[in-house]
């Protein structure tokens, strides 16, 4: 056989088969990172806050999980995306755990249901998940179904359309201690429930139960944990069976996604606006705080000023009173001054009067003096005459003796000649006139003295008053 014939006669197929058998044997024994096709199931869990959504996720992962102790505060803040592989089934579960609808938080800002649903779908779109195999609507046995659940389902249908019903189921949580009889009774009760009647058609995939190892029983190591484990394992299996068997997922159309994106954008815009507003609000708050502090400082100042003002006002009032008193005193002084003025005037008047009176008195005195001088002159004359008479009578006394008569008129020198009766009578008459003249002088002096006394009395009273 030629070489050509020998080469052409080689059985290539048999050789390849032999090679591949060796390779396969080696890969099966030693091959690394072996790949196998898996199917994925996208599951979204939604429902009111604290109904047990995150706990369902834990149950699906591992039925031995024990949830944290119950609190009223919401747990999941943002949608959570997690992927699990069901080993025997070559199925991958993409679980989207959403924040609770009608969330209760510390800041009292309820997340609106549409917002929470939107966030979940947006997250799926971001993860290139554009179809859902199941939407698990979660309600807790402990809190039942209410108007908020109805509202949430209506919103979901409004977003995604009626078709979503084919891929929706209801999951009742907190049922780890319920036996089959109790569950059936529960189902019957549900059928009678007003709210459930409204949403029942939505759950075309049916009603399922869920639960978890009770944290209190776990804490106390109660025997009931075993039964709970068995029950929740059944729930888990039923749920997983459901997810695995769903072959027709609900597609989220591009349109819905873009709508959701738009809605989400507007939500984000609103969130940004909200953040802005919050920042502005914070700035305003700090400004208000500053102003309040300023106000308090100014108030303190104003209070101080008010106190000072009140003090000043008191001082003004006091000084007004003092001023009034001073004015009164001034008035009194003015009155006294006036009185003194009057007194001075009266004194001046009195002095003038006195001057006049004194003048009159001086005049009168002068007059009287003159009168006295006249009288003296008269008396001297009269004395002279008497002396003459006596001289003549002395010369005649020897021829006409008369009874001796001892008359000795004023400033008349004694004589030894005896006067006649006629002489004596004349002398007596003259003496009487002399006496009369003296009486007149005396009366005038009396009058003068009286006037002087009156003036003195008046002056003393004026001086006393002043
Ligand atoms: N016994 C029992 N407790 C549960 C069950 N589901 C939830 N809980 C309790 O309820 C609490 C809240 O459960 P979560 O799973 O966090 O509720 P959620 O719906 O995810 O809450 P949000 O994320 O706030 O919306 C958990 O800490 C558990 O204590 C259940 O099936 N059985
Ligand atoms: Mg949660």
UniProtKB/TrEMBL annotation:
It comes from Rotaria socialis. Belongs to the TRAFAC class TrmE-Era-EngA-EngB-Septin-like GTPase superfamily. AIG1/Toc34/Toc159-like paraseptin GTPase family. IAN subfamily. Residues 41-182 form the AIG1-type G domain. GO terms for cellular component: membrane. One of its GO terms (molecular function) is hydrolase activity. It is found in: Membrane; Plastid, Chloroplast outer membrane. This is AIG1-type G domain-containing protein. Keywords: Chloroplast, Coiled coil, GTP-binding, Hydrolase, Magnesium, Membrane, Metal-binding, Nucleotide-binding, Plastid, Plastid outer membrane, Protein transport, Transmembrane, Transmembrane helix, Transport. Its cofactor is Mg(2+). It comes from the Eukaryota. InterPro entries: G_AIG1, GIMA/IAN/Toc, P-loop_NTPase. It is a single-pass membrane protein. GO terms for biological process: protein transport. Its main location: membrane.
């Amino acid at each position: 056989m030629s070489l050509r014939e020998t080469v052409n006669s080689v059985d290539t197929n048999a050789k390849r088969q032999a090679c591949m058998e060796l390779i396969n044997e080696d890969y099966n024994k030693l091959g690394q990172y072996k790949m196998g096709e898996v199917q994925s199931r996208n599951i979204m869990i939604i429902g009111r806050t604290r109904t047990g959504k995150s706990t369902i996720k834990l149950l699906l992962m591992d039925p031995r999980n024990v949830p944290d102790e119950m609190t009223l505060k919401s747990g999941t803040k943002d949608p959570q995306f997690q992927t699990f592989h069901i080993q025997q089934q070559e199925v991958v579960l993409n679980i989207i755990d959403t924040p609770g609808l009608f969330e209760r938080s510390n800041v009292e800002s309820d997340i609106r249901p549409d917002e929470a649903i939107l966030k979940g779908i947006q997250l799926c779109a971001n993860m290139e998940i554009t179809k859902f195999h199941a939407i698990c609507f979660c309600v807790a046995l402990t809190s039942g179904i209410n108007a908020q659940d109805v509202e949430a389902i209506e919103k979901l249908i409004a977003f995604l359309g009626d078709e979503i019903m084919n891929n929706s189921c209801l999951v009742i949580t907190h049922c780890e201690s319920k036996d089959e009889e109790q569950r059936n009774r529960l189902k019957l009760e549900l059928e009678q429930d007003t709210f459930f009647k409204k949403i029942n058609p939505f759950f075309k995939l049916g009603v399922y139960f869920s639960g978890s190892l009770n944290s209190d029983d776990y804490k106390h190591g109660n025997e009931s944990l075993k039964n709970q484990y068995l029950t929740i394992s059944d729930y888990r299996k039923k749920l997983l069976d459901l997810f695995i068997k769903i072959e027709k997922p609900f597609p989220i159309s591009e349109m819905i996604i873009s709508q959701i994106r738009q809605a989400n954008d507007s939500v984000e815009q609103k969130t940004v606006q909200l953040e802005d507003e919050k920042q502005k609000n914070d700035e305003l708050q700090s400004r208000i705080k500053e102003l309040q502090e300023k106000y308090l400082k100014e108030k303190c100042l104003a209070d101080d000023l008010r106190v000072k003002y009140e003090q000043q006002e008191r001082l003004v009032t006091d000084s007004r009173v003092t001023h009034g008193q001073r004015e009164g005193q001034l008035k009194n002084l003015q009155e006294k001054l006036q009185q003194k003025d009057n007194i001075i005037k009266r004194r001046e008047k009195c002095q003038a009067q006195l001057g006049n009176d004194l003048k009159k008195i001086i005049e009168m005195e002068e007059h009287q003096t003159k009168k006295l001088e006249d009288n003296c002159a008269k008396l001297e004359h009269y004395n002279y005459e008497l002396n003459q008479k006596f001289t003549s009578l002395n010369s005649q006394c020897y021829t006409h003796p008369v009874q001796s008569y001892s008359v000795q008129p004023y400033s008349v020198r004694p004589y030894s000649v005896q006067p006649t009766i006629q002489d004596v009578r004349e002398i007596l008459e003259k003496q009487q006139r002399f006496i009369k003249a003296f009486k007149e002088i005396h009366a005038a002096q009396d009058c003068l003295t009286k006037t002087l006394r009156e003036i003195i009395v008046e002056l003393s009273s004026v001086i006393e008053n002043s």
